[in-house]
Amino acid sequence: MNNINDCLNIEDFRIAARRRAHRMVFDYIDGGADDEKTLARNCDAFDDVELRYKVLSSFANPDTSTTILGEEIDVPFILSPSAGNRLFHTDGERGPVKAAEKVGTVYSLSSLSSLSIEEIASLTSGPKWFQLYIWKDRTLVKEMLDRASAAGYTALILTVDLPITGNRERDPRNGFTIPPKIGLKQIWHGLQAPFWCLDYVTKPAIRYANLSNDTPAVSLNDFVAEQLNPSFSWDDAQWLLSEWNGPAILKGVVRADDAKRAENVGFNAISISNHGGRQLDTSPAPFSCLPAIRDAVSDKTELIVDGGIRRGTDVLKALAMGANAVSFARPYLYGLAAGGEKGAIAAVEMLANAVKHDMVLLGVKSIKDIDSSFIKQKGSF
Ligand SMILES: Cc1cc2nc3c(=O)[nH]c(=O)nc-3n(C[C@H](O)[C@H](O)[C@H](O)COP(=O)(O)O)c2cc1C
């Protein structure tokens, strides 16, 4: 099956992405760190919990809207940030930003995007947040914050689970670099992905649009490795908050004590996340960290669960467990890699429809009706 119109679920989009994209590109999206145990666990954790639906209380058209950090959104999910989307498809970030606008939710832009802060802002009238990595260069950080604020990004996401990049073994095995190096192996794999190759060579090259134009294109990987600051501390996080005028989210937290500390230093929300299993392997699935973190922080600190969401039921389980919203990257990235903007929109709409459909089956009229009475641990009574 190659056609995005034939996709019935996110796994179908994944298969369609594998068919269209160059192997090194698909593996970059799909892969995780080391033995990929966390990558698998992120999805599997949802299977440990079951949904206890109510009977005779269904509603044909449940209300899937909610609010997150004061933003009214039509679905209880937002789009997680992801770097360099141009590599996956020539439509780049345009795909997911349009998908977010279509379903009425927040788009989060990675600081390592291939369209700039301003280009993205001009593409959407929907809500948008800006994600930042921990850069060594504070001038660059301040400059990016000012640009994001001026362009109408309302919240800041500080990603802290990437002091250095994880050991993603699929990438060196495929000879993957950004921009891609072309050797015999890449040509061989390229023959199996002719449409991706045609787009790649005939359309504008990948760039990290938020970095300065004189950053040499060949050394972007090195530049990123050099610029990430592994010794960034809580004091630095506090400095960053003082430079940002608006709500802020700390992304990459899996411990209750870190979540509490984030709340104390002034973050308004926590993204419980392990970077989609791409960083420290055997770290726990975000979904399984949710109860302890919910208990540790006050009700005013909002929680976003990020990692392994593939079905409407995953979204409902996270909400029932105490999340204010969930977020995801691979579902829209598979859509983008499989079919550009259309594919990203189709994948995100599919999840939006699944949430509504599953709310009818669960027997709830609105998101606020979903509570812990709807879940039970597998094997318990
Ligand atoms: C290809 C790819 C690129 C990513 N780039 C970023 C990034 O630039 N910034 C960031 O905070 N997280 C990044 N992430 C992590 C996602 O934001 C998110 O935490 C993770 O993918 C969630 O897991 P899921 O893909 O199972 O939904 C990236 C993930 C993928 C798969």
Question: What's the helix and strand layout?
Answer:
Layout: H1 10-20, H2 23-30, H3 37-44, E1 49-51, E2 66-68, E3 71-73, E4 77-79, H4 94-103, E5 107-109, H5 117-123, E6 128-132, H6 138-150, E7 155-159, H7 170-174, H8 184-191, H9 194-202, H10 220-227, H11 234-243, E8 248-253, H12 256-265, E9 269-273, H13 286-296, E10 302-306, H14 312-320, E11 325-328, H15 330-362, E12 375-377
Parallel strand pairs: 4-11, 5-6, 6-7, 7-8, 8-9, 9-10, 10-11
Antiparallel strand pairs: 1-12, 2-3
Helix pairs in contact: 1-15, 4-15, 12-13, 14-15
The structure holds flavin mononucleotide.
Flavin mononucleotide (FMN) is lined by residues 28-29, 42, 80-83, 110, 112, 131, 159, 251, 273, 275-276, 306-309, 328-330, 333.
What can be said about this structure in brief?
By secondary structure, this protein is of the alpha/beta class. It is built from 15 helices and twelve strands. Helices cover 42% and strands 13% of the residues.
Q: Could you characterize what this model shows?
A:
- This protein has 381 residues and is of the alpha/beta class.
- The chain has one domain (4-377): Alpha-Beta Barrel (TIM Barrel).
- 42% of the residues lie in helices and 13% in strands.
- It is built from 15 helices and twelve strands.
- It has helices at 10-20, 23-30, 37-44, 94-103, 117-123, 138-150, 170-174, 184-191, 194-202, 220-227, 234-243, 256-265, 286-296, 312-320, 330-362, and strands spanning 49-51, 66-68, 71-73, 77-79, 107-109, 128-132, 155-159, 248-253, 269-273, 302-306, 325-328, 375-377.
- The strands form three sheets. Strands 4-11-10-9-8-7-6-5 form an eight-stranded parallel sheet.
- The longest helix is centred in the last third of the chain and has 33 residues, at 330-362.
- It is globular and about 60 Å long.
- The N and C termini lie far apart (41 Å).
- The mean pLDDT is 94.
- Bound molecules: flavin mononucleotide.
- Flavin mononucleotide binds at residues 28-29, 42, 80-83, 110, 112, 131, 159, 251, 273, 275-276, 306-309, 328-330, 333.
